[in-house]
Specification:
The complex is a heterodimer of chains A (about 290) and B (about 375). By secondary structure, chain A is of the alpha/beta class. Chain A contains ten helices and ten strands. In chain A, strand 7, helix 7 and strand 8 form a beta-alpha-beta unit. Chain A starts with a helix and ends with a helix. Classes of the chains: A alpha/beta (about 290), B alpha/beta (about 375).
């Protein structure tokens, strides 16, 4: 364990200014509640690393989360943190970001939170293009409630509510986000923490709504139920199931099993909603509208 | 200088909110409250505010809470089905003590009901619509001028007490057009929530203060605190320690009890010697007022008690009114199957006979109906 920490520390030292995660988490909230082997901690580390690299002012940082395992992460970030209701963090964040354009708004959500109960808010956030970053942690399961099937549970997988195996097709979150008009879409696995940090940096600096899916692992509940092995085994198999977008073959097929593309999957320029709204209002006032 | 103008109840809510400093509105179209959103979309940009039509009712309530957590006064408006959908995030605002105002224009129910017809079927929902023990303030205007002044009061109460305030209109008051002079309506000085000041180190966002209203940290001011819908202690972080949980939940209702005097509001007419007292809100109170005038002309000693603050109900004021007038009968006319009457019965048990007068057909209760009932119960 100690060796692993040192390895991480030495790798971190490679970035511009030394990243010390203790400057970004609430140490008084430790120990955290995540299970051993859960990938969410790696994702949070990558996010905080990106925030560090970008030199964001913690006082101006707002972290908004929903409900579920992902929802609990906001409490660990030394920022203005808001743990909201199930599926609604993007709705809360929309109000916050519109009312306070000076804040850096980052939403942490999960596959159930954003693709099931909060699906409507996700597609409209993608369409609207308000300046914020949404990091979705996809662990294929409702972990907090004990391991029920989610919109991203792979075909055939066992969960407490699919005792005979999951027969529903998988939601491809990135294809959904891109289809709904998101101007920045990316995906990464937790094993590629440097690539994930880089992706999150690009997402945060993107002008408009950015969506990043992180393939996380639920070892304790989902992994155990499906005999997927230890956390390192799950993370490795996730990595081998992915391929960098650059190597994606020419056939555009979002539902291809075991060839989920990673990296930046969509990026284009479109007017940021808040700025566009303010500009249109100003133009209307100039015309002396009644 | 007077500026008399024709104004609709729904529009008056929008203008009152802006007058009180509301600078954010998120809404979703729904009859019969859409004019509130339309007025806000038009007016907010003129004062540097922000309007957004969200993807659904749930989102608009979430966005309002989010904007308020950002330190901006925020409001939404809805009706029946939309008010049902808002309950979860409304509960969040109760639990996390986020100031916000919700205009609910009542229409016929249940379910989609009668969207364009008046009702007072949400009286209990405004009090108990969201789950769990919580406290909330509900104000019930009965005129266009009052829609304006009570929305101002709603913004101010939500700010000073960090509690959601519902402005409860019925469809008639919402769509009523009356001639008003807004400049003649005293708005008072602008009121803000107490923002957190002082040391950042060791700051507790839900510390128990003398007034039971903790100062609210504003993002950007350096407090970097945590806000959650989970039951939380003074630190703002979740707790399940029994003593801390009890204290946290108890403070929410103690807070409103402590400030009851500032919250409560009611109007009376001809109560001094009333033998029959009518208790009504909204457009039904306007009908009751006409009935009282008619009854008095016939020599029947009728009086009116009108709660303007519906919740918390003006308990002592009603009891005192009945006691001092010596009224032997009380009539509660309402456009539902009997909701406010439950509260009146509870408060007046053993003090006076309480009679119901209900209408659920999408039509308003006429003054003559109330007058007839008064004569009937006195006979």
């Amino acid at each position: 364990m100690k060796d692993a920490m040192e390895q991480v520390a030495s790798r971190d030292a490679g970035s511009a200014a030394e990243f010390d995660i203790r400057q970004y988490v609430r140490l008084d909230q430790m120990p955290h509640f995540l299970c051993p082997g859960c990938g969410h901690g790696i994702a949070l580390r990558a996010l905080l690393w990106a925030i560090h690299d970008l030199g964001l002012d913690k006082d101006k940082l707002a972290v908004v989360s929903g409900i579920g395992c992902s929802g609990r992460l906001s409490a660990y970030v030394d920022a203005n943190s808001f743990h909201t209701t199930h599926g609604r963090p993007l709705a809360f964040a929309t109000g916050l970001a519109l009312a306070r354009p000076d804040l850096h708004v980052i939403v942490i959500t999960g596959d159930g939170d954003s693709l099931a109960i909060g699906g409507n808010h996700l597609i409209h956030a993608c369409r609207r293009n308000l300046n914020m970053t949404c990091m979705m942690l996809n662990n294929e399961v409702y972990g907090m409630t004990g391991g029920q099937v989610s919109p991203t549970t792979s075909a055939g997988r066992l969960t407490t509510t699919t005792p005979a195996g999951n027969s529903e097709p998988v939601f491809d979150a990135c294809a959904l986000a891109a289809g709904a008009g998101a101007t920045f879409v990316g995906r990464e696995v937790t094993m590629q923490i440097v690539a994930l940090r880089n992706l999150l940096r690009d997402a945060i600096t993107h002008d408009g709504f950015s969506f990043v899916e992180v393939m996380s692992d639920c070892t304790e509940i989902f992994g155990r139920k499906n005999d997927l092995g230890s956390s390192p085994e799950m993370i490795l198999s996730q990595k081998s199931a992915m391929r960098p977008f650059a190597y994606r073959n020419t056939v555009d097929e979002p539902f291809r099993p075991n060839t989920m593309p990673t990296g930046v999957l969509a990026r284009h320029e479109r007017a940021e909603y808040g700025a566009a709204y303010r500009e249109m209002c100003a133009r209307r006032q100039d015309k002396g509208a009644k | 200088m007077t500026q008399r103008r024709n104004l609709q109840g729904n529009e008056a809510c929008a203008l009152g909110a802006i007058r009180a400093g509301c600078r954010f509105f998120a809404g979703y179209p729904i009859t019969p409250s859409s004019e509130v959103a339309e007025a806000m979309a038009r007016e907010l940009p003129r004062v540097g505010g922000t309007f957004i039509q969200m993807e659904d009712e749930i989102a608009s309530m979430g966005a309002v809470v989010g904007a308020s957590m950002g330190g901006v006064k925020a409001m939404t408006a809805t009706s029946g089905p939309g008010f049902s959908l808002k309950q979860e995030n409304l509960g969040y605002a109760c639990g996390a003590e986020v100031p916000c105002v919700i205009v609910n224009v009542m229409r016929g129910g249940p379910s989609t009901g009668m969207p364009t017809r008046p009702s007072q079927g949400d009286i209990m929902q405004t009090r108990w619509g969201t789950h769990g023990d919580h406290s909330i303030i509900v104000l019930a205007p009965a005129s266009v001028a009052e829609a304006y002044s009570e929305t101002i009061r709603a913004v101010n109460l939500s700010e000073t007490l960090r509690v959601p305030v519902v402005v409860l209109l019925d469809e008639v008051v919402g769509h009523l057009v009356e001639t008003v002079d807004l400049d003649a309506i005293p708005a008072g000085a602008e009121v803000w929530r107490k923002f957190a000041t002082g040391p950042r180190e060791g700051f507790e966002p839900y510390a128990v203060t003398d007034d039971l209203v903790p100062p609210m940290p504003r993002p950007g001011d350096g407090y970097r605190s945590h806000t959650t819908g989970l039951t939380h202690g003074p630190s703002g972080f979740p707790t399940q320690v029994p003593d801390q949980a009890r204290a946290a939940i108890q403070r929410l209702s103690d807070k409103l009890d402590l400030h009851r005097e500032a919250i409560e509001s009611y109007r009376t007419r001809a109560i001094e010697d009333a033998e029959v007292l009518i208790v009504a809100i909204g457009i039904t109170a306007r009908a009751a007022q006409a009935a009282v005038t008619d009854l008095r002309a016939q020599g029947v000693r009728a009086g009116l008690f009108r709660p303007v603050t519906l919740w918390p109900f003006p308990e002592q004021a009603l009891r005192d009114t009945v006691e001092n007038s010596g009224a032997r009968a009380v009539i509660v006319p309402e456009m539902n199957q009997g909701q406010m009457v439950l509260e009146v019965e509870r408060l007046l048990a053993g003090r006076a006979e309480v009679h119901r007068l209900n209408r659920i057909d999408g039509e308003v209760i006429a003054p003559a109906q109330i007058a007839r009932k008064a004569i009937e119960v006195l006979a």
